[in-house]
Amino acid sequence: MSADELVADLRGGSVVDEPGTAGPAVRRARAWLTRALEPGSVPAWRFVERVGPVEAVAALRAGTAPPRVQAVAGARVAEDASLDDLRRAERCGARLVVPEDDEWPTSALHCLTVASSALPDDHRLDRTLTPVPPLGLWVRGDGALADVVDRSVALVGSRAATAYGEHVTGELAHGLGERGWTTVSGGAFGIDAAAHRGALAAGAPTVAVLACGVDRAYPASHSALFSRLLDGGLLVSEWPPGCAPLRHRFLVRNRLIAALTRGTVVVEAAARSGALATAHRARDLGRALMVVPGPVTSAMSVGCHELLRDEERGARLVTTAAQVVEQVGSLGADLAAPPARPASPRDELSDVARRVLDACPVRTGVSPERLAAVAGCDVLDVLRVLPALELADLVQWTGTGWRLHPPPKTGTGASR
After folding, report:
1. Smf/DprA SLOG domain: from which residue to which, for each copy (predicted)?
2. Which of 159, 197, 368, 398 could cross-link to 190 by cystine, CB 3.0-4.6 Å?
3. CATH number at residue 211
């Protein structure tokens, strides 16, 4: 189709299909833009916001868009795979969600709009770092995107995860799922996969934000995982179906993982890790940043510990799902309970009772007068606390004096 035919088709289509749903012209225009413009360009996003998606396509096809925007599209302006992309998405059960839809996660992505407002209108900015809102999101799965990510937490970390990291991630994701929270990650090996599996084990939705088309399983060995994930969860990408997982796209998509969620938890990260980029994006966007500590001898936890040492980042140490929810949940309503500790009969003892108990010998019983001398108190005080200590099985009368109650025998050998 020529440039004139494409533009005429877009301008002749309806802009609004029904309340809360973008019309075919807008959806096709944004489908074209998601392929023509690589995500993360400040001037391109501002141009589309200013003139609208249909007129942006017309200007790019005619070569009349601002030079900075035209440079982002490059040779792609002559191509049109928009209808093919929409049909390909439909065949795999996906759809293009655009800002004109009610399903668009407006509240979650508003932080990107605010962050990008302070950026210069320069196409030379590093796209992997710029917090620019997406022009559209290709979504595969039945759940409404805005609803699924409304109460969500990102769990990210190293692909070369240790058994410790995978175990902790699975426990966190499972605990979050039991509490009604969605887990968001990147669908990769290691921590990402453990996060998705932990959520699935709890019967909770989980979202994988991909750096390729939603019709592709990358890595290929995760095709079964992605199939399970679609039962209540979502696959999300800024790139149209069929797009390859190019290296830079993993860094570009990190801002989406950070923006779509209320907070990001870094479970394991080496000194150089893509998970650290997500952590920085989360903090820059005003999201909660949480870190799981690891063994100080583990290279896979060096990045985590550096985040905790960076006071300006304000990362919070978390070890349980309850502590994560405390950071991202409702103020005063989602507080984590203090860690339980084993109860001991000694916990409720008075100061005098503790001193008398400490004065008791292990083997030979002694008189109350001797206990009073060692404990530094009156004999009457000793006689007052001894009955309570005996009832608690802490001390024992031997017939000649008082001693500590012997511990229960735990041996398994039978008497002969």
Report:
1. 128-328
2. 159
3. 3.40.50.450
- Are 225 and 257 in a shared domain? yes
For residues 80 and 60, give the distance between their C-alpha atoms in angstroms, rounded to a whole number.
Answer: 12
Which residues are within 8 A (CB) of 205 and not within 5 positions of it... i.e. 6 or more apart? 143, 148, 177, 182, 199, 232, 233, 234
- Of the candidates 34, 32, 33, 12, the one whose C-alpha atom is nearest the C-alpha of residue 23 is 12
Residue 378 is part of which domain span?
345-404
Q: Express each pLDDT in 195-208 by its tens digit.
A: 999 999 999 999 99
Encode pLDDT of 255-291 as tens digits: 999 999 999 999 999 988 889 999 999 999 999 999 9
Residue ranges for the chain with pLDDT beneath 70: 1-4, 12-19, 122-124, 330-342, 410-416
Q: At 82, list the tokens.
A: 């928009």
Neighbours of 302 (CB within 10 A): 17
Question: Whole-number mean pLDDT of the chain?
Answer: 90
Report how far residue 229's alpha carbon sits from residue 195's, in angstroms, rounded to the nearest whole number.
11
Residue 175, φ and ψ in degrees, nearest 5: -65, -40
287 with 318, same domain: the answer is yes
